[in-house]
Design a protein that fits this description.
Blueprint (H helix, E strand, L loop, with lengths): L6 H11 L6 E2 L4 E2 L13 H7 L3 H12 L2 H9 L4 H13 L1 H8 L8 H13 L3 H12 L5 H18 L3 H29 L29 H10 L15 H9 L15 H21 L1 H21 L5 H4 L5 H10 L8 E3 L1 H4 L8 E3 L7 E5 L5 H16 L3 E7 L2 E6 L10
Parallel strand pairs: 3-4, 3-5
Antiparallel strand pairs: 1-2, 5-7, 6-7
Length: 427
């Protein structure tokens, strides 16, 4: 085990490990339901408890990414030959944005591409029972699925109305109502019941008139936004634009591109998951539309897309393989030993990579914000937050006698809080 996962893996490990007694984490300062409506995370709890390892969540996300291919195959097979359908599904597995979502730290958004594609397959096959199931799964991923699925429901209602399919129209309008009701209920009932007292956290992405931290913020004319859109389209050779279904991806693209924080439109982040399912479905239907008149051109476009996806994965991969994949080192072994220094479930402050592996400790937290009894830090670790905020405070606290070092090994240091008062509120 190496130590390269970010804080979100620790956040979700804490949340899911406490699924039936708090559903909370120290980073968000309480129930995860105050930030996001994600009941789908309860499905992850049994495997996490069974393995008692955050790697279970890594495996679950990998499985969720792979499950995007089968519905795409079935969707395509209804319109093109089986061989071409297999190739379309292969493109999905090579698609860099999906690989980026699958390969990054665990997030509830990791379920969105596959759930969206299975929902589209079920609606296309008129299997209304399955539509209801996958609609419920999608709505349980995150609150933003509510407006996205309401828009998709309106699109479907128009589609079925033009075809004279009353059952489809009725089901689509019902989906619109359920989606909007879920979205409203999250803010009207779920957040207050979960203990929310402050404004909804994710609003900071869209507070253009009141940017608290300019770092990571980008102006409206930033080249990053069109570049991000091209990163989504080029690997698929723009074939998805040949299907009207691509319209369903536009609200999801708006969600990530209208943010003033560039992290939402950085490929390899989990935010891309909201539009990936719609784009891949539009790709399959776009290929089918071209194949009706130009079968050979359709095959060539799929081949071109596979090649483009492969080239991006090799030369500009959003998966950051160089960061996440490497052999264990002697320093990793030293970190293993350092964890043994801590008493069970001790209040400990640490940084991202170590916090990710302390998720089963309900008292583990990031930095020194909670004035923990213990502080465990790796001096070989680097991040702007560590260098600019946490490390200077730690040095000041040690100088003031608030913390003293008790163990050290290969640059990893354990500090314990003394009885002297802290310098003040954590930053």
């Amino acid at each position: 085990m190496t130590y390269h996962s970010g804080a979100d893996l620790g956040l979700f490990t804490q949340t899911i490990a406490s699924a039936f007694h708090g559903f909370s984490n120290t980073t968000e300062g309480g129930s995860h339901f105050t930030f996001h409506f994600s009941p789908i995370l309860y499905l992850c709890a049994p495997l996490l408890w069974l393995t008692h390892s955050p790697l279970a969540l890594v495996a679950i996300q990998a499985l969720a990414g792979g499950l995007a291919a089968p519905p795409l195959f079935y969707l395509a097979r209804r319109r093109v030959g089986e061989r071409l359908a297999w190739r379309i599904a292969l493109v999905a597995l090579l698609y860099p944005p999906l690989a980026g979502v699958t390969f990054t730290d665990f997030h509830e958004n990791g379920f969105a591409p596959a759930a969206t594609l299975w929902l589209i397959w079920a609606a296309d096959a008129r299997r209304w029972g399955w539509v209801a199931l996958f609609l419920a799964l999608c709505l349980g991923i995150k609150e933003d699925q509510g407006p996205l699925l309401a828009f998709a429901g309106l699109f479907a209602a128009v589609y079925f109305a033009r075809r004279g399919e009353r059952a489809g129209v009725a089901f689509s309008l019902g989906a619109v109502a359920v989606s909007l009701a879920t979205f409203v209920a999250f803010f009207a009932f779920v957040r207050p019941l979960a203990g929310a007292t402050d404004a909804w956290g994710p609003l900071h992405f869209y507070t253009w008139s009141h940017i608290v931290d300019p770092r990571g913020s980008a102006p409206w004319y930033s080249i990053g936004r069109p570049a991000y859109f091209l990163e989504a389209m080029v690997p698929l050779a723009f074939v998805c634009c040949f299907s009207p279904l691509f319209i369903l991806a536009l609200p999801a693209f708006a969600e990530v591109l209208l943010s003033h924080e560039s992290i939402t439109y950085t490929m390899g982040q989990h935010y891309a998951a909201v539009w990936i399912g719609y784009v891949l479905a539009a790709f399959a239907l776009g290929v089918a539309r071209i194949a009706r008149r130009h079968p050979l051109s359709a095959q060539r476009l799929v081949t071109t897309s596979a090649v483009l996806c492969g080239l991006v994965l090799v030369f500009a991969s959003p998966t950051h393989w160089g960061h996440y994949l490497r052999l264990r080192t002697a320093h990793d072994v030293a970190i293993d030993r350092a964890f043994q220094w801590l008493p069970p479930t001790a209040p400990v402050g640490t940084h991202d990579e170590l916090y990710a592996h302390l998720g089963f400790d309900p008292n583990a937290s990031l930095g020194l914000r909670r004035d923990p009894q213990y502080a465990l830090f790796d001096n070989t670790y680097w991040s702007s937050y560590w260098v600019e905020r946490v490390r200077p405070r730690l040095i000041a606290e040690v100088a003031a006698g608030t913390y003293r070092i008790v163990r050290s090994d290969d640059g990893i240091q354990l500090f314990v809080k003394t009885r002297r008062p802290s310098l003040g509120p954590a930053r």
